[in-house]
Amino acid sequence: TTFIGASFGGIAEMYAQIQKAVGATERVFELLEETPEEINAKPRLSAVEKIKGNVSFNNVAFSYPSRKEVQVLKDVNFTAEFGQKIAIVGPSGAGKSTISSLLLRFYDITSGQILVDGKNIQDYDLEDLRGNMSIVPQDVILFGGTIRENIAYGNPNATEEEIITAAKQANAYNFVDGFPEKFETLVGERGVKLSGGQRQRIAIARALLKNPSILILDEATSSLDSESEKLVQEALEVLMEGRTSIIIAHRLSTIRNADKILVLDNGKISEEGTHQELINLENGIYKNLSNLQFSNS
Ligand code: ATP
Question: Where along the sequence do coiled-coil regions lie (predicted)?
Answer without folding.
Answer: none
